[in-house]
Design goal:
The chain has 239 residues and is of the alpha+beta class. Helices cover 39% and strands 25% of the residues. The chain has eight helices and ten strands. Strands 1, 2, 3, 4, 5 and 6 form a six-stranded antiparallel beta sheet that branches. This is Crp/Fnr family transcriptional regulator.
């Protein structure tokens, strides 16, 4: 029986979303969905790349090992994100390490199984190329935002993405125009993702207070004026 949560994650994955429903079902049938506790290491940098992973629930972090016994988180992955794309190339190794940050559910497929499937189904190759192109465009947009946007704008853009993303469609409306979104990872990791120090993130939240942005517990954020925040984050039109 195909797990619906796994299918949903794959449909939201930029690499795999170009596959049609039947192709995605074939993909899921060849892999495994596993529940993993926080702290589980999926793979270490330099390991032979033998699996592609897709986050179904929870948070995973990609990082480069630092001094012995310490790690530096680089990029948090939420449901629908993938890790281990290096496995799509033959005889490859993982460029970074991956660790489960919060209890997670992860779909994995062995690269040899995926390769055999791709050998038989050229249409799958085309679909994955579309997905890779979409992901590349998304990364370019993120890099551009980091270079061009202020810290407050970066935070605002991220919060608006949570509002708009289907994965966050369970956000709670307050009935007065306010919206509550849930952060998919800690504020420390959010600062890392947005390319700023934790103290800069705190100041960015302060600058967005005029749009009714305020914390509601450890993981929830209230957006009191979504329209105002959206206008603030949009670049000015050239004159």
């Amino acid at each position: 029986m195909i797990d619906s949560a796994t299918l949903t994650a794959i449909r939201h994955n930029p690499l795999l979303s170009g596959l049609d429903d039947a192709e995605q079902s074939v993909l899921v049938s060849l892999g495994a969905t596993t529940r993993l506790p926080a702290g589980t290491v999926l793979y270490e940098r330099g390991d032979a790349a033998r699996h592609l992973f897709v986050v179904v629930e929870g948070t995973i972090a990609l990082y480069v090992p630092d001094e012995p016994g310490t790690t530096v988180p680089l990029y948090p992955l939420s449901p629908g994100d993938s890790a281990g794309e290096e496995s799509l190339a033959p005889d490859s190794h993982y460029d970074m390490s991956a660790r489960v940050i919060t209890d997670a559910v992860v779909f994995s497929i062995e690269s040899r199984r995926l390769s055999r499937l791709l050998d038989q189904r050229f249409d799958l190759v085309l679909g994955m190329l579309v997905g890779m192109s979409t992901r590349l465009r998304g990364l370019v947009r993120e890099i551009t935002a980091l270079k061009m946007a202020s810290t407050a704008e970066r935070l605002g853009i991220f919060l608006l993405e949570l509002v708009e993303a289907r994965a966050s469609s369970r956000h709670e409306g307050k009935g007065d125009g306010r919206i509550v979104v849930t952060l998919p990872f800690s504020k420390q990791m959010l600062a890392q993702k947005l390319g700023m120090q934790p103290e800069s993130l705190s100041r960015a939240f302060g600058k967005l207070r005029r749009f009714g942005v305020q914390g509601a517990g450890q993981t929830q954020v209230v957006i009191g004026d979504p329209a105002g925040l959206r206008a603030f984050c949009q670049p000015e039109s050239p004159t």
